[in-house]
């Protein structure tokens, strides 16, 4: 007999275990041992900052915990509930699915992010999701600097039955994007997912390359790209904030995917990013499997991060 598939809530709480113990668990331990006074609130704020929530969010949550509870003893569960409620308020406005607008055919999604963020894998998982939703998907291996990225995308294409437009390593990414758009249009693809290189250490080269890709796309379809999705690796913590800033400038990011949340205690960074940039969060990655890309659920994420059962 096959094991029943874990529910989304089980996967979310399981995947965010490290973050919830660093955040909800640590917060509950801190406040349940003593009365809430100025020193405790200050320690709580510092703990939240260390958990990557950012200074403003930490101050907001600490103030909410202290509200009306000064010099009182509070339970760990009470504080977890406040933490979940405040995080939920910050995340609710950014919970937005990736909507495929059928008036654009193909609907072109440019996927950006630094190397190692899980970008190519995310494209494969997203392509699998869209294929299951009966969209005709085409992939473009636009990260022409890495032979591994090209090979990986070809494997995903074979697995889900999606055509992959690829050239040899070192080819011009912009002309590959042009070729992919022409092919997607000719073959009646609903969605075209384009991978890109992510060499942030060479910002000028990356910027000019992305700029060129977008310019070339517009020769085929003036409205493209229709979505620019930035893939972020949760394990890099505060570094993710500067990545959002860089890619916003270069590519005009329209939405986010955060990966590797199952392997880090730094999932709180998603809250800091939401508070600062207010960009839609489409999906979160909770593992390596094809099904481990989950639609972002603000309330579920907030409760899981706080360690509420």
CATH class of the largest domain: Alpha Beta
Count of DSSP-assigned helices: 12
Order of helices and strands: HHHHHEHEHEHEHEHEHEEH
Shape: elongated
Indicate the percent of residues in helices.
40-55%
Considering the protein shown, what is the CATH homologous superfamily of the largest domain? P-loop containing nucleotide triphosphate hydrolases
SS elements, strand count? 8
Structural class: alpha/beta
The fraction of residues in strands falls at 5-15%
How large is the radius of gyration? 21 Å
CATH architect. name of the largest domain: 3-Layer(aba) Sandwich
| CATH topology description of the largest domain | Rossmann fold
Distance between the termini: 28 Å
The averaged pLDDT comes out at 92
User: What are the low-pLDDT stretches, counting only 5+ consecutive residues below 50?
Assistant: none
Question: Spatial order of the strands in the main sheet?
Answer: 3-2-4-1-5-6-7-8
| Overall structural domain count | 2
The biggest sheet amounts to: 8 strands, mixed
């Amino acid at each position: 007999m096959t094991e029943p598939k874990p529910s989304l809530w089980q996967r979310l709480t399981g995947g965010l275990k490290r973050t919830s113990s660093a955040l909800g668990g640590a917060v509950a331990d801190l406040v349940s041992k003593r009365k809430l006074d100025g020193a405790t609130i200050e320690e709580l704020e510092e703990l939240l900052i260390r958990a990557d929530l950012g200074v403003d969010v930490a101050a907001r949550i600490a103030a909410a915990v202290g509200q009306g509870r000064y010099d009182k003893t509070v339970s760990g569960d009470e504080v977890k509930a406040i933490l979940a409620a405040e995080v939920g308020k910050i995340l609710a406005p950014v919970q937005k699915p990736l909507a495929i607008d059928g008036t654009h055919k193909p609907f072109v999604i440019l996927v950006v992010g630094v190397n190692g963020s899980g970008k190519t894998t995310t494209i494969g998982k997203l392509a699998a999701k869209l294929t299951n939703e009966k969209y005709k998907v085409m992939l473009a291996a636009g990260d022409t600097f890495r032979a591994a990225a090209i090979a990986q995308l070809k494997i995903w294409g074979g697995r889900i039955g999606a055509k992959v437009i690829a050239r040899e390593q070192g080819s011009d990414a912009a002309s590959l994007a042009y070729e992919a758009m022409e092919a997607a249009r000719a073959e009646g693809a609903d969605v075209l997912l384009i991978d890109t290189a992510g060499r942030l250490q060479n910002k000028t080269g990356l910027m000019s390359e992305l700029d060129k890709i977008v310019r070339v796309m517009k020769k085929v379809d003036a409205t493209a790209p229709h979505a620019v999705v930035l893939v972020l690796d949760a394990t890099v913590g505060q570094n993710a904030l500067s990545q959002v800033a860089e890619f916003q400038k270069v590519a005009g990011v329209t939405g986010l995917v955060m990966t590797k949340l199952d392997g880090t205690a730094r999932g709180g960074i998603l809250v800091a990013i939401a508070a600062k940039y207010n960009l839609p969060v489409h999906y979160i990655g909770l593992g390596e499997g094809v099904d481990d890309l989950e639609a972002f659920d603000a309330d579920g994420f907030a409760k899981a991060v706080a360690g509420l059962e």
